[in-house]
Write a structure and sequence with these properties.
Elements: H1 2-7, H2 9-18, H3 20-45, H4 52-68, H5 86-89, H6 91-110, H7 116-137
Helix pairs in contact: 3-4, 3-7, 4-6, 6-7
This protein binds heme C.
C-alpha cells in the first residue's frame, strides 16, 4: 500500500512490466535448481537409490542454471515478491554468493560422482550455498 502511494499507480505498473522477464528468468533458473535438489537430496538421504547417470543429469542441469542465474537477471529496481531488496543494498556480497554457487556447481560437474560418497562430497557444498543465500536474499512466500 505505502509503496503504491509513494511511486504512483502508473509508474509501479510500468516498472513491474519492464522487469517481468528478468524475474521470470531468474525464477526459471531457480526452479531448475530446485528440481536438481529434488532429485539429489533423496539419493543423499538414502530414500532413492544412487544412480550415476541421474545424478550427472541433475548436476549438469544445476550447473547450467547457475550459469543462467547471473547478474544481468538482477537489474536495479527489479525486486520482486521473492527477491529481497537486500540484493541491491549489499550487491557485492550477493554476487560473491552467486559466484561461490557457480564455482561449486562447476566443481561438481568436473568431478561427477560414481557413488553416494562422491555425490555427498560434491553436492553438500551446493546445499550450503542455497541456505546461505536464501537467508539473506530470498523472501519465502
Ligand atoms: C546466490 C543466491 C542463491 C543461491 C545460491 C540459491 N538461491 Fe534460490 N533463490 C535466490 C533468490 C534471490 C530467489 C528469489 C528470486 C525471485 O523471486 O526473484 C530464489 C528463489 C528460489 C526458489 C523459488 C523459485 C520460484 O519459482 O519462485 C527456489 C525453489 C530456490 N530458490 C531453490 C534453491 C535451491 C534448491 C538452491 C541450492 C541448490 C538455491 N535456490 C540456491 C537466491 C539463491
Amino acid at each position: 500500500m505505502l509503496k503504491t502511494l509513494a511511486c504512483g499507480l502508473l509508474t509501479c505498473a510500468l516498472s513491474t512490466a519492464a522487469f517481468a522477464d528478468v524475474v521470470d528468468n531468474r525464477r526459471a533458473a531457480m526452479d531448475q535448481i530446485r528440481v536438481g535438489a529434488a532429485t539429489l537430496v533423496p539419493m543423499m538421504k538414502g530414500a532413492a537409490d544412487f544412480d550415476a547417470k541421474t545424478a550427472e543429469l541433475a548436476l549438469r542441469m544445476t550447473y547450467a542454471a547457475a550459469i543462467a542465474f547471473d547478474g544481468s537477471l538482477f537489474p536495479e529496481g527489479s525486486s520482486s515478491k521473492g527477491a529481497s531488496p537486500a540484493i541491491w543494498d549489499t550487491t557485492e556480497d550477493f554476487d560473491a554468493k552467486r559466484a561461490e554457487f557457480l564455482t561449486n556447481a562447476a566443481a561438481a560437474v568436473s568431478a561427477l560422482p560414481t557413488d553416494l560418497e562422491g555425490l555427498k562430497a560434491v553436492y553438500q557444498p551446493l546445499l550450503g550455498n542455497c541456505a546461505a543465500c536464501h537467508t539473506s536474499y530470498r523472501i519465502k512466500n
